[in-house]
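Input record, target 12 of the design panel.
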């Protein structure tokens, strides 16, 4: 899974050994960040919502509160 993520443009993922979860980091291009700001959203939240709407894939934005 890690190799698949790391083969994607603007995605970095640390190797996961013996786990069911991967935690890729996506680097959003400046144009995407500006589009999110114009929509009044945090960029990663905006991306996650658009991905969910377009594909049904659910992601957790990294900017969310930590507990």
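The sequence produced for target 12 reads:
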């Amino acid at each position: 899974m890690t190799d698949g993520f790391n083969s994607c443009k603007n995605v970095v993922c640390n190797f996961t050994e013996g786990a069911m979860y991967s935690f890729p980091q996506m680097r959003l291009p400046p144009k995407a960040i500006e589009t999110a700001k114009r929509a009044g959203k945090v960029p990663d939240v905006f991306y996650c919502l658009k991905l969910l709407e377009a594909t049904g894939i659910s992601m957790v934005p990294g900017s969310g509160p930590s507990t």
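The chain is about 40% helix and 5% strand.
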